[in-house]
Design brief:
Length: about 675
């Protein structure tokens, strides 16, 4: 550090730049690469201090090195020089705050015990940058095309003594405290006296049709839920009857069954129940108008600009739906989505979640990364600073300052993210076909950016659009090792190919020049933001496409999936009970499932075997941005209620307690 200060004060930095230029111009045969790199390493050490970086910028070092490196990008022999130049340029790039009025999330929620959520001060992000780069700050620069950061922590968490890993044969709390969980295990006191019903009553049940799914049975009320129930559901018995799932191939059923202790009704009962079924769709709005709302389906390409509600147009669209997507029903999804509570009070349905999607036709290998793609993207960012002539810098979408009446800019993509699980806070058009995107932070927070899910429309055909998500936080990403974002095309879906597909090329993840406070990013993680960049050619002109971090799985998807599973299983073999573990702070139910095998008979021996089965406890989606967990849970649930012999054996051996989504509010609010 002291040598660097002396080098700057004595004017050596400018001399080093002139020496480097001279060697670069005269070493045309590249025989003295390591002498040139030695000069660059001197510059790299000097620019580790703030005074060195300032002097480097004043000496036009950015322009000199940027120009010199252009000649050797295609020559692998010059990689030592190219890598060192890019490290210096990235380090000396003037640090900026994110182009936001504030970094705190656009969504605020009053927590219990707090009178109100204090909004952050305006411009707080930019005020923290002055003087924040202390002298002596030296970054550990890795080869830009190999971001495999090696951890220096010892493997203290790898226990080699197996005996220490064994569960201790003692309770972790007094046994008398376990009684509070009895409400979560009603199957232990279930009355199985009535296991069979008259065939006429079964036929009567199978012939009854309703337009909406019935309620989770055996709902556990709480003070909050009694006052603020999401929807008016009818109670069910766990011993209801239905078709064998093997006969209908687990497609979304048309029937729903409701039943009390015995199935008896007359014509008036049936008429009354049909009326109740018709009222279910409106029950949330009628009883709690502030909690339920009319949802509009995001307009498909041929209906651009026209809002589609539960109207003839939606009905016309549904006529095209082939109903061949396993465990999915648009009707069930809409019924559930209407009752979801979100902070921004979503009024739109994303087309992929409503329509559903099929499994991709084939597996896709990891994307092979092109040589030098990361450094090319870093140099593109530096080119913006040095050659700003083609930079547009126009905001085309802003969650903080929405302009619903704006018709959009001709020739510019239109973005939207205000739907369940959506996340895109701001979109800035950098160049004609390049956009900087900013994700929204967690609710009441100014950090945790990973999940993105948004809509794009009005694209051109055969054009490569580049998207840069500029406020990522993690040091590295699977996007550097072959992972791709996923894309859903509405035109493809309406043509019979509704699929989320891996898409994108020139994908990489790297540190950018945007700076955040240490407190913002949680201490050492709060140094820099990172950019995820990818380019996409859309399959159709003027399509409506959705891009996401991973295959989305919303709260409404889960709830409608549970409805379908409940009514598709064979209740004579599969014991299914759905309870509400709790109401979230946002007012959404957190379901708790119990799955096991029905007792073989009502004899004491079989009932004893039932109640003595060990429990298996499964949970998923504690991190809302990790939707892959929900897809694993979805497959697990479908298997556990299936007719597979192994699933049947598992049900007979265990009682499965499952919480399929531990963080509903996080999932809902994106």
């Amino acid at each position: 550090e002291s040598n660097s200060r002396r080098a700057v004060s004595r004017g050596y930095l400018g001399e080093l730049l002139r020496l480097y230029q001279d060697w670069h111009h005269n070493d045309v045969s590249n025989n003295y690469i390591y002498i040139r790199r030695g000069l660059l390493l001197c510059l790299k050490h000097i620019t580790n201090i703030q005074l060195g970086r300032e002097t480097f910028l004043d000496s036009h070092g950015m322009e000199i090195l940027f120009t010199s490196v252009q000649d050797g990008l295609c020559c692998k022999n010059l990689d030592p020089i190219t890598t060192t130049v890019i490290q210096i340029l990235r380090k000396c790039y003037p640090k900026e705050s994110l182009p936001l009025r504030r970094v705190t999330s656009s969504y605020c929620f009053p927590l219990p015990g707090n009178a109100k959520v204090e909004p952050p001060c305006e411009g707080s992000e930019s005020k923290c940058l002055k003087g924040d780069e202390s002298d002596g700050e030296e970054e550990v620069e890795k080869c830009l095309d190999n971001e495999d950061v090696e951890s220096k922590d010892e493997d203290y968490d790898l226990e080699t003594d197996v005996n220490k890993l064994r569960s201790q044969p003692v309770l972790d709390r007094p046994e008398e405290e376990l009684g509070q969980y009895e409400a979560m295990c009603p199957e232990l006191s279930q009355n199985f006296q009535v296991l069979e019903f008259e065939s006429e009553e079964e036929k009567c049940l199978e012939n009854r049709t309703e337009s909406l799914p019935s309620t989770p049975s055996h709902f556990i009320p709480s003070a909050a839920s009694v006052r603020h129930s999401n929807c008016k559901w009818r109670n069910q018995s766990v011993t209801e009857t239905g078709p064998d799932p093997g006969k209908n191939n687990f497609k979304a059923p048309l029937q729903c069954w409701t039943k009390e202790e015995k199935c008896r009704w007359d014509q008036n009962d049936e008429k009354r129940d049909n009326e109740e079924a018709a009222q279910d769709a409106d029950s949330c709005e009628e009883e709690h108008p502030t909690r339920s709302h009319v949802l509009a389906l995001r307009p498909p390409p041929e209906d651009a600009g026209e809002r589609l509600e539960s109207s003839d147009l939606v009905t016309k669209l549904l006529e095209k739906h082939q109903g061949d997507i396993p465990f999915h029903s648009p009707h069930f999804y809409m019924a559930r989505a209407k009752c979801v509570k979100s902070i921004p009070s979503y009024k739109d349905l994303a087309f992929p979640d409503f329509w559903g999607h099929q499994t991709p036709p084939h597996s896709k290998p990891l994307l092979e990364r092109n040589y030098g793609v990361q450094r090319d993207k870093v140099l593109d960012d530096i080119r913006r600073l040095l050659q700003p002539g083609d930079v547009i810098g126009r905001t085309v979408f802003d969650l903080d300052e929405p302009s619903p009446s704006s018709p959009g800019v001709p020739g510019c993509l239109k973005f939207f993210s205000q739907f369940e699980s959506g996340n895109l806070r701001k979109a800035i058009q950098v160049r004609e076909f390049e956009y900087d995107l900013i994700m929204n932070a967690d609710v009441n927070s100014n950090q945790h950016h990973q999940w993105f899910y948004f809509e794009v429309r009005e694209m051109k055909l055969a054009v490569s659009y580049r998207f840069n998500i500029i406020n990522c936080e993690k040091f590295n990403s699977q996007f550097n090792y072959g992972m791709q974002p996923v894309m859903y095309s509405v035109k493809e879906a309406l043509q019979g190919r509704p699929r989320w597909l891996r898409a994108g090329h020139d994908i990489c993840y790297y540190k950018n020049h945007y700076r955040c406070r240490a407190a913002t990013g949680g201490g050492m993680r709060g140094k820099f933001y990172y950019t995820l960049t990818f380019s996409i050619k859309f399959p159709h002109k003027d399509d409506v496409c959705y891009l996401a971090y991973h295959y989305p799985y919303t709260y409404s998807t889960m709830m409608s999936h549970l409805d379908i599973l409940e009514h598709s299983r064979n209740p004579k073999k599969v014991y299914w009970r759905q309870q509400t573990l709790c109401q979230t702070l946002g007012g959404n139910g957190c379901p708790l499932l119990t799955i096991t095998a029905m007792p073989e008979s009502k004899t004491g021996e079989d009932l004893e075997q039932f109640s003595s089965r060990p429990y298996v406890f499964l949970t998923a989606r504690v991190h809302p941005g990790e939707s892959n967990a929900s897809w694993v849970m979805k497959g697990t649930l479908e298997f556990l209620v299936s007719t597979d012999p192994i699933a049947d054996l598992l049900r007979k051996c265990f009682i499965f307690k499952i919480i399929p989504m531990l963080n509903p509010d996080g999932v809902i609010n994106g």
